[in-house]
Amino acid sequence: MREIDIDKVGEVVREAAEVAIAPRFRQLAAHDIEEKTPGEVVTVADREAETMIAARLREMLPGVPVVGEEAVALDATLLDALRTEPMAWLVDPLDGTVNFANGDPHWAVMVALVREGETVASWIHRHTDDRLYVAERGSGAWCDGLRLTCATGRSALATLRGAVLPRFLTDEERARIVPALDRFERVSDGYTCAGYEYPAIIEGEQEFALFQRLLPWDHAPGTLLLTEAGGVARRPDGSPLTLDHTRRGLLLASSETVWETVRATLYGSACKE
């Protein structure tokens, strides 16, 4: 892998949050928010932040493509770079856009570096609580310079806390999964922001989360952070996550024991590809 300055990328995501996003928080006008697809919104802050980040990343690694969420919304073929190019950047300029647009402080800026289809480094910056999470494959996960290790105190089924967002479940999945949620201590809809959901598992706020929609910029940064901290991120059938956004289902857990317990509770023997 070409040498990258881990700290410099952190500065890039912090700057984007400070310059392009934070000044617009709770200051958006109606014309600053658009619906790009049914149920999906984009703001002027998303677009400006992505432009800033992409320009800086291209300077750091000339010739390496930048696959940004908003650029892909205009040209889906940009996703091909994740499988055809030796290296590519992934950018989610404003994770939790709906939260941001509604004045909810749970939003983040996320970047990942992908090499031959695998995430090798990631950055998650949360401006609201001023936290910067960084992970590098094989070197660990960190928050503001402190090494992260998953909290593993809870493992019994009735003590587990998690997040499942029912609106992304199919009717068949809802019929099987929702009734099983009562067996856990607590299951919420989560933060609707991966930049908060992944750290919540590492830091012991909850033990698991189930996602269905697997857009690569949403999950590449967090899965590396979680696994480098000792957690588990696999599809419910046990296969590893790939950056193929057409597949569904990703189960996160603080430990292998928790993952197996949650998977058996929600899916039993019914989980198939």
Give your account of this protein's structure:
This protein is α+β, with helices and mostly antiparallel strands and 273 residues long. The protein folds into 2 domains: 6-147, Fructose-1,6-Bisphosphatase, subunit A, domain 1 (Fructose-1,6-Bisphosphatase, Chain A, domain 1, 2-Layer Sandwich), CATH 3.30.540.10; 157-267, D-Maltodextrin-Binding Protein, domain 2 (3-Layer(aba) Sandwich). Helices cover 33% and strands 26% of the residues. It has helices spanning 6-21, 44-60, 69-74, 81-84, 97-101, 171-177, 194-202, 216-228, 256-267; strands at residues 33-37, 40-43, 66-68, 87-95, 108-115, 118-126, 131-136, 140-143, 146-147, 161-164, 186-188, 208-213, 232-234, 248-253. Helix 1 runs antiparallel to helix 2 and helix 7 (194-202) runs parallel beside helix 8 (216-228). The radius of gyration is 18 Å and the shape is globular.
